[in-house]
Each structure stands twice: as C-alpha cells, then as structure tokens.
C-alpha cells in the first residue's frame, strides 16, 4: 500500500533547506577549508581561506547570506515509487517553498523571466530547477542547492572524440580550470561526468559536486582518477581566490555513465567556495 505524503511537507522542507543553505556551509566543506589553509603554500592563499572561514562563521552566527549571490534554486528529488503525493501540485509546492525562503529571509532574487529581454525579475527567485528521479521505497529525498552565477558560468560540456581517451579528459579538466582562473571563486569543487549523452553528462556533473568532500567513489579505478585529477587541478597554480597557490580545489568528483560507441561526452560542473547544499529525507 502506498504511503501518502502531503505536498505541504515538501514545501516546508524546501523552505527550510533553502534557508539553511544560504547561511550554513556544510561541515565537510568547512573541514576541507581548514585542511586547505594548513596545506596552502602561499601566504596570500592562506589569508584568503582564513577570510572565507571567518565569513562562514559570521553568516552562520548572524543568519546572513554567506554570499551576495544567493543562487538559483536547484532541487534533486528522489521520489519513492511507493509514495502517493497528495494535496496539490508538486512543482507549485516546491516553488512556494523557494518563494518563502527567499522572501522571508531577504535573500537576493536573481531570476529573469526572459533571458534575452532581461527586463523583468520574477521577484521571488522562482521557478526552481527540479530534477526528478523515481526510486524504490516509500520516502522522498530532497537535495537543495543554491547555485551561484559565477561558478555556473564556468561549467561546460564537450563532445570529445572517443580517441581522446582518459588522457584527453585529464587535459580538458586541467585546461578548463586554468582558463576559469578566479572567476568561479576558488577553492572550488569540480564535478566531472564521463559518458552518458549531452544532457545526462551535464546533469550528473552538477550532481557530482554535491557529493560529500571526503567520500570515495565505490569503483576504485574512478576513485583513483578523482585523486589524480585533484592533484592536477591543484598543480594549475590558480589558488584561493585566483591569486595563486597550491589549493585550487577541495575535491574533484567523477561520475561515469555508459555512452554511444560514436560519442565521448565529458561535462564539467564547478562549485564555488559558497558550497551551498542541504538535504533531507521525508
């Protein structure tokens, strides 16, 4: 028998997650910043990370946004196939949760209705970007991310040649991070998806940056690639704030998906130092 879940519970959860994401960096990322400050060889880089840590502390204690760009609301929603959602329109409930959080907590509203006219803001940071997945079980998992424009602009997809192989991937990632420089506000987290197709690679790279900093990919070969890419990225010399140094990224997270024999899509998603994401299971 299906478990019933009222969409108002999802609305309230989204509002709470959006609030917490604006004010509180995840503990795993804070711990990573502290380790990076110790490891950074540049004195300026150490100072930049120190300022980021102070900023995070003030944001949490004063309940103020950690960055003036409070992001576009993105929700990854895993819906158990044994859940029956009741009480109204699910998308409307999610948007209402975003609307409440961004209005009640005076978070910057950053969404244009029309991307090329750019003459009217929606006024409440809606509509949210929602990615649905149907999974086994009777729970709903919500992962909320507030994705800023600076790091989003530094994300990309490249339809590479199959002959480029893994060495081509390594070059693409390191060249792209070097080209991005300070624009995505490093220290960053880099999400990479190898395979899938054009749109799936981008989606999985975006989801990859939400993984905990310290988790390990279950495939040892992919985990080793993550380690190697992190080392290569940190050798680019971009450094904290783009001012040079040895600690450009806290992590590189890689996802691998099957792809067509004639294709080799590779996507890169970059998350800035305001690594804002929170999750809950209902």
Please tag this protein with its features.
10 strands; globular; 282 residues; 2 domains; four-stranded mixed beta sheet; alpha/beta
Q: Could you give the topology of this structure?
A:
Layout: E1 3-6, H1 7-23, H2 27-39, H3 43-62, E2 72-80, E3 83-86, H4 90-104, E4 129-135, E5 140-147, H5 149-153, E6 156-160, H6 165-180, E7 188-196, H7 198-208, H8 220-234, E8 249-259, E9 264-271, E10 277-281
Parallel strand pairs: 1-3, 2-4, 7-8
Antiparallel strand pairs: 2-5, 5-10, 6-9, 7-9
Helix pairs in contact: 1-4, 2-3
What's a quick, concise take on this entry?
By secondary structure, the chain is α/β, with parallel strands linked by helices.
């Amino acid at each position: 028998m299906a478990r019933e879940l009222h969409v108002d519970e999802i609305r309230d959860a989204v509002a709470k997650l959006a609030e917490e994401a604006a004010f509180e960096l995840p503990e795993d990322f804070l711990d990573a910043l502290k380790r990076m400050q110790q490891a950074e060889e540049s004195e300026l880089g150490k100072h930049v990370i120190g300022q980021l840590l102070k900023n995070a502390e003030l944001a949490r204690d004063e309940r103020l946004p950690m960055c003036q760009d409070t992001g576009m609301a993105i929700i990854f929603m895993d819906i158990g196939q044994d859940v029956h959602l009741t009480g109204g329109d699910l998308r409307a409930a999610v948007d209402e949760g975003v609307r409440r959080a961004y209005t009640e907590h005076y978070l910057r509203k950053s969404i244009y209705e029309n991307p090329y006219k750019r003459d009217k803001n929606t006024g409440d940071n809606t509509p949210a970007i929602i990615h649905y997945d149907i999974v086994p079980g009777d729970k709903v998992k919500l992962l909320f991310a507030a994705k800023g424009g600076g790091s989003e602009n530094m994300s990309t997809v490249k339809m590479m040649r199959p002959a480029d192989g893994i060495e081509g991937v390594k070059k693409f990632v390191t060249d792209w991070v070097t080209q991005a420089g300070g624009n995505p506000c490093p220290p960053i987290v880099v999400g990479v998806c190898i395979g899938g197709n054009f749109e799936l690679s981008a989606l999985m790279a975006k989801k990859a940056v939400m993984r905990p900093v310290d988790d390990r990919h279950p495939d040892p070969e992919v985990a080793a690639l993550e380690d190697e890419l992190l080392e290569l990225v940190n050798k680019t010399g971009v450094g904290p704030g783009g001012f040079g140094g040895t600690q450009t990224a806290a992590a590189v997270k890689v996802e691998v998906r099957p792809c067509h024999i004639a294709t080799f899509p590779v996507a890169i998603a970059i998350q800035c130092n305001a690594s804002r994401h929170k999750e809950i299971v209902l």
